[in-house]
Structure formats: structure tokens, C-alpha cells
């Protein structure tokens, strides 16, 4: 339900135990508006984390839908997978972050900032609901 592509098929046979999503709006010094999605997925078994990460880290397989998005789209932007980071946290949790450009003038520097934002976002603690 909160995923798309092959990731949705994965969850249909291997449901997660807990899913927490946040969307963080960011504006850089050039006025580019960025949405940073952070998703914490808790799986029943460690093997599920390994298999899920292997799947979501492969380009074009889908992902967990960002809070406020429809599939990979959010407002005027799209989560393309270009600015993406995932990390395992403990034995049963995967943290996924992806950034989408919502407005501004994209260039190589903007993409680097988006990638940096995802690397920071996966280090955030899971919020208490």
C-alpha cells in the first residue's frame, strides 16, 4: 500500500513489522526547493532487511512511497533515484532516504546537495510517531 513497483510485490509476501515515514522540506541558498523523504522500515527478520535493501538499492525497482507523494511523484517533483541513500540500522531496520527537486534551477551542484541531504537524513533517529 505504501510502496510501488517490485518493492510493493516484496511487501505483499514479506510484510514489514513497522513503517515510519517523514518528509523534510529543504531550501538551499540558491532558492532550490527540495523534498527529502526518510523511511524507517522494521522487518520481522534480519534476512528481510538484507533482501529489501538489495531490492530498493537497485535502480528502477520501486521504493516505499514518500509521505505526501503518489508513487514516485510529489507535487511538481519526482523521486528519480538519483539522490538516494539507504543504510541498515541494527539487525531488523532499514532506513531509506531519497530527495526530489520541487522547484528551482537544477544543476550538478544541486544534485550534489540533494545527495548530501539523503546521506544526512538516514542518520536521523526514528521519530516517536
Strand order in the sheet with the most strands: 2-3-8-7
Helical percentage: 25-40%
Number of helices: 3
Structural class: alpha+beta
Whole-Å distance between the termini? Answer: 19 Å
Characterize the quaternary organization of these chains.
Answer: single chain
Could you give the order of the helices and strands?
A: EHEEHEEEEEH
Q: Averaging pLDDT over every residue, what do you get?
A: 93
How many individual β-strands? 8
Largest sheet: 4 strands, antiparallel
Strand content: 35-45%
Which geometry do the CA atoms define? globular
Residue stretches low in confidence (pLDDT < 50, at least 5 long) are none
Count of spatially separate domains? 1
Overall radius of gyration: 14 Å
How would you describe what is shown here?
The protein is an alpha+beta fold and 129 residues long. The chain has one domain. It contains three helices and eight strands. A four-stranded antiparallel beta sheet has the order 2-3-8-7, sandwiched between helices. The chain starts with a strand and ends in an 8-residue tail after the last helix. The model has no long low-confidence stretch (mean pLDDT 93).
Summarize the structure.
It contains three helices and eight strands, in the order E-H-E-E-H-E-E-E-E-E-H. By secondary structure, the protein is α+β, with helices and mostly antiparallel strands.
Amino acid at each position: 500500500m505504501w510502496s510501488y513497483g517490485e518493492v510493493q510485490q516484496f511487501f505483499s509476501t514479506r510484510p514489514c513489522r513497522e513503517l515510519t515515514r517523514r518528509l523534510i522540506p529543504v531550501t538551499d541558498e540558491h532558492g532550490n526547493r527540495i523534498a527529502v523523504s526518510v523511511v524507517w522500515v522494521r522487518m520481522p527478520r534480519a534476512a528481510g532487511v538484507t533482501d529489501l535493501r538489495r531490492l530498493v538499492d537497485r535502480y528502477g525497482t520501486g521504493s516505499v512511497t514518500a509521505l505526501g507523494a503518489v508513487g514516485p511523484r510529489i507535487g511538481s517533483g519526482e523521486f528519480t533515484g538519483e539522490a538516494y541513500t539507504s543504510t541498515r540500522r541494527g539487525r531488523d531496520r532499514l532506513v531509506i532516504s531519497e530527495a526530489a527537486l520541487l522547484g528551482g534551477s537544477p544543476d550538478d551542484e544541486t544534485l550534489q546537495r540533494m545527495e548530501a541531504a539523503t546521506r544526512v537524513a538516514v542518520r536521523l533517529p526514528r521519530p516517536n510517531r
